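Quick review question:
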């Protein structure tokens, strides 16, 4: 399995890339979100990769971040979503945006992405809700102590019956050094006003 490439970027023609690693040129496909952050041709580049082996081909996909690669892998597990559609989805929304769409159960925002119809959007929401929730929780936990307090506060508010979108709005712009108890109190005050 090829999990990461570090080399020189030789060709940059969306969605195709060519990366020279020790004299071997690796052809990859990447979402536009990765292309936006690539260096100029001839510069060093590091990409997280996913190798897809099919009966008729071995395809290598490259991503600028581990989160993008993890989401790509989750998308491939959804029935009816192949590698091409997964790249289109990652090109249309960021990892954080997709997590918010899934948490809000908003298929209308997914239908705006080319190639996604209403049924596919609903399937994505249904099948990605739990895995994306775990991915976001893991990244929030690693991020910072503030994120732990915010995550605890969000979980408590959702346990009280508030929707994830309401919770995110209520926790937005609260003090960075606040404890989870203070965050819950402040968020409840905001929620009660609305």
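Suggested answer, residue by residue:
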């Amino acid at each position: 399995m090829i999990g990461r490439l570090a080399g020189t970027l030789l060709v940059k023609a969306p969605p195709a890339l060519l990366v020279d690693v020790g004299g071997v040129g690796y052809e990859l496909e990447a979402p536009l979100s990765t292309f936006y952050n690539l260096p100029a041709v001839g510069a060093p580049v590091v990409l997280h990769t996913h190798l897809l082996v099919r009966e008729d081909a071995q395809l290598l996909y490259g991503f600028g971040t581990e989160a993008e690669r993890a989401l790509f892998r989750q998308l491939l597990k959804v029935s009816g979503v192949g590698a091409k559609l997964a790249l289109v989805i990652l090109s249309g929304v960021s990892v954080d945006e997709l997590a918010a769409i899934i948490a809000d159960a908003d298929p209308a925002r997914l239908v705006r992405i080319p190639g996604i119809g209403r049924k596919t959007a609903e399937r994505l929401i249904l099948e990605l809700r739990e895995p994306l929730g775990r991915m976001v929780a893991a990244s929030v936990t690693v991020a910072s102590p503030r994120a732990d307090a915010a995550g605890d506060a969000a979980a408590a508010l959702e346990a009280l019956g508030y929707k994830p979108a309401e919770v995110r709005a209520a926790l937005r712009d609260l003090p960075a050094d606040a404890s989870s108890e203070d965050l819950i109190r402040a968020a409840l005050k905001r929620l009660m006003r609305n």
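Why it works: The chain has three domains: 4-64, 66-143, 144-194. Residues 4-64 form a domain with the OB fold (Dihydrolipoamide Acetyltransferase, E2P) fold (CATH 2.40.50.140).
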